[in-house]
Write a structure and sequence with these properties.
The protein has nine helices and two strands; from the N terminus they run ααααααββααα. By secondary structure, the protein is mostly helical. Among the domains are: 35 residues; 47 residues. A hairpin with a 2-residue loop joins β1 and β2.
Length: 272
């Protein structure tokens, strides 16, 4: 009986805890903290593995030298070459392994040459010696310090000459750019002038056409006035002729011996 009561109390406590704990916000936070959703592989990795301390320059140099002196990469390539099936893949891996070995040999030779150069420079600085140099057709005797100074002066002169060449090249580029900009401006000016000329020609053509239309209108007006005058004259002539046809018979016979019919030219003179 007590066991059943304890089970019931445990179930009730579990239900209460479940209701309070299993909320949508807690579920989303749990998925996000483990990197399940949103998907993130860094969430499950401890920060100590991610934020590793950065190597110093000396440690980087030692690691680089160890990598150059190690044959592990070439051996890994050789081992991987035996696992390939295609001839092309095997040839690529063999070539890569050979290049690594050649690079290692070149690095060893370079280190040896660098050490010899440093030793020679130290010996030259510590023990000055005389050198006989032929210059301008004459033999001159220089010490090591003088020789180094001459070499440094020659290197400085060479650098100055290169700087002059670069400046000349830059000036040439600037002049070319300025010339191109000037040509572009001249081209724009010519285009603007051509546009102005075209506009002027168009305006002149419109003005000419307008004058022609005005002259044509005046001509038509004069023709209309002349036609109107002629019509008036004709109407007047017709009225005079009509009057001459309507005279009495006695008057017409008495004047027929001495008077002739009026002509249009005489009527016009009479009008004037």
């Amino acid at each position: 009986m007590e066991l059943n009561r304890s089970c019931i109390s445990h179930d009730r406590l579990y239900q209460q805890a479940r209701v309070k704990a299993l909320t949508p916000a807690n579920i989303r936070k749990g998925y996000a903290a483990t990197g399940i959703w949103p998907l993130s592989g860094l969430s499950a990795i401890p920060s100590a593995f991610i934020n590793a301390p950065a190597l110093t320059e000396s440690e980087m140099e030692e690691a680089r030298e160890a990598a150059w002196e190690s044959d592990a990469l070439a051996a890994s390539l050789d081992e991987l070459e035996g696992q390939q099936r295609s001839k092309k893949a095997k040839a690529v891996l063999i070539q890569a392994s050979r290049c690594l070995k050649e690079a290692k040999a070149a690095n060893v030779l370079f280190k040896d040459l660098e050490e010899r150069r440093r030793a020679f420079a130290a010996a030259m600085k510590s023990k000055p010696r005389a050198f006989r140099v032929a210059q301008n057709g004459q033999a001159c005797l220089y010490t090591a310090a003088e020789s180094i100074a001459i070499l440094q002066a020659a290197e400085t002169q060479k650098q100055e000459d290169e700087a002059k060449k670069r400046r000349k090249a830059e000036e040439k580029v600037e002049r070319k750019r300025a010339k191109e900009a000037e040509e572009a401006l001249a081209k724009q000016r010519r285009a603007a002038q051509a546009l102005v000329r075209q506009q002027r020609k168009a305006a002149e053509a419109l003005e000419k056409e307008k004058r022609q239309q005005e002259r044509l209108a005046k001509k038509r007006q004069r023709e209309a006035e002349v036609a109107e005058k002629l019509a008036l004259k004709k109407a007047k002539i017709d009225r005079l002729l009509a009057k001459s046809h309507t005279l009495p018979l006695g008057a017409k016979s008495s004047s027929s011996a001495t008077c002739l019919p009026l002509q249009p030219t005489q009527l016009t003179h009479h009008e004037s």
